[in-house]
Amino acid sequence: MPIDQQLQRVLIGEVARCMVTHAEELTALDQAIGDGDHGLNMKRGFEAVLAELDKTAALPMNEALKAVGMTLVMKVGGASGPLYGTLLMTLGKTFPELPTRVAIAQAFSAAVDAVKARGKSDVQMKTMLDVLVPVLATLSAGGANLYARLRASAESAAAATVPMQAVRGRASFLGARSVGHMDPGARSSWLMIQTVVDVLERGGSAMKQDENRAASR
Amino acid sequence: MTSRNAKKALANVGIVIVSHSPDVARGAADMVRQMVGNDVPLAWCGGAPGGGLGTNVEAILAAIDQAWSEAGVAILVDLGGAETNSEMAVEMLPHERRARVVICDAPVVEGAVMAGTEASAGSTLDQVRRTAEELRAR
């Protein structure tokens, strides 16, 4: 799917606003099992992203991803800054010129690997990776109703972190007491993916309508 | 600081203290300073960008710069985000500096004091790190 500047602006803006809107919910999740700052940190980072939206919307997509990632690294103030920052900066570095599903899946795979390295973490550790990895698998597999399946896969993967026991980060201090709460990073990843999918679906169908209109003229 | 001390400080491993709380970081730095005087380049940072509890990559980079020594810099951190942000900062250093900075797996206050004491004896970066890490929670 082509990503024009308008769509890129909506993508970055919607993801950032979603994180700001859900700050309290993310903080409440993090107070249950972490150090209670995830929502606040994401809000601070993504408010900085919103402040630079005019600049990043005008950049080529790969440069925009790198710029948003760097803003998160510099402004978030917690581990989620380098983690989401690394995800987006690596996605920017590997983002294909021709963004087909297969090419985007390859770039996303590189980005997820970089997050694993940054967090010295992997799946089943009750982290954002427990959402990112299943979503990557769905994206790589492709097939019909992809947008709906990406949303479903993010949602069920986040829900699957509830019974997990944390082994990374502050939540790991809690041991068995971390069981029974959704991981805040899994929740923010789910929100992010849901927002991206929603925007692309709307953008894609709007573009199809434009094409249909153009074709019927 | 006399010029002889200044020269000695430059030759010793530097210490950087990174805490979510500026009060904790400053307090730990005070304790190190009391132990080792001005023999060790020392810097601290704490707090999120724009205030509040957290850590700040830009401030960590500035602290590394402030405590820079040709012998290297040992960083002491508190909770997870301090470690991840410090690792990010180290990666953003100029290439020639990157290999001469280590993040110690040690409690921040005791680790800083032990590392500072070891550094003041003119020990190598690796020795400083190992001394701090003897305190690691097992």
Give the CATH topology of chain A. Answer: Serine Threonine Protein Phosphatase 5, Tetratricopeptide repeat
**From N to C, what is the helix and strand string of chain B?**
HEHEHEHHEHH
Give a quick account of the main beta sheet of chain B: strands, pairing sense, barrel closure.
4 strands, parallel
Return the structural class of chain A: mainly alpha
CATH homology group of chain A: DhaL domain
Q: Largest interface, by Cβ-Cβ below 8 angstroms: which chains and how many residues each?
A: A-B, 23 and 20 residues
Mean pLDDT level of chain B: 92
Biggest sheet of chain A: strands, sense, closure? Answer: none
Beta-strand proportion of chain A: under 5%
Gyration radius over CA of chain A = 17 Å
Runs of chain A in which pLDDT lies below 50 for 5 or more consecutive residues are none
Rg over alpha carbons of chain B: 13 Å
Name of the CATH class of chain A: Mainly Alpha
Approximate strand percentage of chain B: 5-15%
Description:
The complex is a heterodimer of chains A (217) and B (138). Chain A is built from 10 helices and no strands. Helices cover 72% and strands 0% of the residues of chain A. In chain A, helix 2 packs antiparallel against helix 3, helix 3 crosses helix 5 and helix 6 runs antiparallel to helix 7 (101-119). The mean pLDDT of chain A is 91. Chain A has helices at residues 5-21, 23-33, 38-51, 53-57, 61-75, 80-94, 101-119, 129-141, 146-159, 184-216. The relative contact order of chain A is 0.13. By secondary structure, chain A is mainly α. With 138 residues, chain B is α/β, with parallel strands linked by helices. Chain B has one domain (3-133): Rossmann fold (3-Layer(aba) Sandwich), CATH 3.40.50. Chain B is built from 7 helices and 4 strands. Chain B has helices spanning 3-11, 22-36, 57-66, 80-91, 95-98, 108-120, 125-133, and strands spanning 14-19, 42-46, 73-77, 101-104. In chain B, helix 2 (22-36) packs parallel to helix 6 (108-120) and helix 6 (108-120) packs antiparallel against helix 7 (125-133). Chain B is globular, with a radius of gyration of 13 Å. The N and C termini of chain B lie far apart (39 Å). At the A-B interface, helix 3, helix 5 and helix 6 of A face helix 4 of B.
